[in-house]
């Protein structure tokens, strides 16, 4: 029987069977979890938040990626900066709250003080030979994609972020993320490996049976289907949906709103996918009645019925942008069998809760969906621990994008650990 804790990582990577789920150690092994942090979360661009997390100069937020503590601040010139959240004196954590506002960054241990550019500006009793210029905070690469904040812990980050940003910028810009505010944030600890959370997101094979709230604003044929299993009436409905998508894309793009699908999930290091899709019912937002949840539009659109733009990035995020609000999701690995799913709902910065939007209506679809998905991820994690688990085949009609996620993941692991293999 396979020893799930000592099987060499390289052999697991090399024998991965395409179009099948990963072997159990990828979901259960602490050693492979550590390898994931090294090869994936310390080498690629990671989505961590939005500019409304730090809306004003002096605003700061923190996030932990494995053993790495990261500090993100807006400086006095209104620029977003990121640093290791570690004092250069004796390594104490600088900022302890997830969100705060500061004038300077002051270490509580010995009062070493840094300005918002990361420069050390005060350190008592260090002697005449001490050079403050050599002890500034260690920077972390940070980029804002139209208000979405990404960091990279690698010394040399993947250069293809620029390619992704150039393609995605026109899609996201109309949603005006920088002029939004966070109406609500919810942190959920999912009982599963981070890859199971991502795999679950990359398909909707499970949606019809598990997500009654989510399937209200979404068309059933947008989930994928097997054409050979449809009767004549169902084939006609699927064809009408295909025409609706094509016609919607043409109409939206005629209004200057990019909408057509772009997909580079497994052929770029900074993998991504986007597409704007029509919504069912009244078709305005991800709500139970499919009407806009917020009275004040968040974006600049000619109509309330602009569908929903989805945007996925490897390895850890997905996003939904509507005319009235946006929802962002980030997955942060905690250990081999637990992950943090952080969800943020954004509305226009001038919108007032209870006047312009009802919070329960705004968040109900995804609060329910996240809880349902968390339970499903836990079922998969429990199964991966058993002796009976073996990789199962993906549906070629509804799980193609799960395969693209796993193919991207194995490619990144191979590039980092298997020097004999070609990589992107």
From TrEMBL:
Iron-sulfur found in the keyword field: yes
Domain Rieske: 45-151
Keywords: 2Fe-2S, Iron, Iron-sulfur, Metal-binding, Oxidoreductase
GO molecular function, one term: iron ion binding
Cofactor: Fe cation
CDD domains found in the cross-reference section: RHO_alpha_C_GbcA-like, Rieske_RO_Alpha_N
Keyword Transport set for record: no
InterPro entries attached to this UniProt entry: Rieske_2Fe-2S, Rieske_2Fe-2S_sf, Ring_hydroxy_dOase_asu_C_dom, Rng_hydr_dOase-A
PROSITE patterns, per database record: RIESKE
Pfam families: Rieske, Ring_hydroxyl_A
Name of the protein in question: (Fe-S)-binding protein
